[in-house]
Amino acid sequence: MSRIEPLSADMFDADCGHRMPFRVGDKWSAMLLRCLEAGPRRFTELKVPLHRVSPKVLTETLRAMERDGWVSRTAYDENPPRVEYALTALGRALLDPMDHLCAWTRAHRAEILGVREEYAQGE
């Protein structure tokens, strides 16, 4: 039997190329990418489909996505103040890989749900 190499403690160091930005795997970023896909949106518009997200968490997620260069925030000097969020070119570059992941999920949905059900019965 062949021996598998042990995992390295530094395999996810920032300079190794294997580490992905955390935003991809968080709970709301992918949904926000979808919401912004068609164009800029105001915060109140984003809250409609993301009604399960608290305003605090939505704000934190948008700020993190802005920090990572995926979303731009434009504040207009109006009364009342208006702020719009839009995908940057970097954020748009995530849409195609996300489409592939969604297609994989749709193709394997029944299998995933079946495995989850078996797992739940075994607990």
UniProtKB/TrEMBL annotation:
<keyword id="KW-0238">DNA-binding</keyword>
<dbReference type="InterPro" id="IPR036388">
    <property type="entry name" value="WH-like_DNA-bd_sf"/>
</dbReference>
<keyword id="KW-0804">Transcription</keyword>
<dbReference type="GO" id="GO:0003677">
    <property type="term" value="F:DNA binding"/>
</dbReference>
<dbReference type="Pfam" id="PF01638">
    <property type="entry name" value="HxlR"/>
</dbReference>
<dbReference type="InterPro" id="IPR036390">
    <property type="entry name" value="WH_DNA-bd_sf"/>
</dbReference>
<feature type="domain" description="HTH hxlR-type">
    <location>
        <begin position="14"/>
        <end position="113"/>
    </location>
</feature>
<dbReference type="InterPro" id="IPR002577">
    <property type="entry name" value="HTH_HxlR"/>
</dbReference>
<protein>
    <submittedName>
        <fullName>Helix-turn-helix transcriptional regulator</fullName>
    </submittedName>
</protein>
<keyword id="KW-0805">Transcription regulation</keyword>
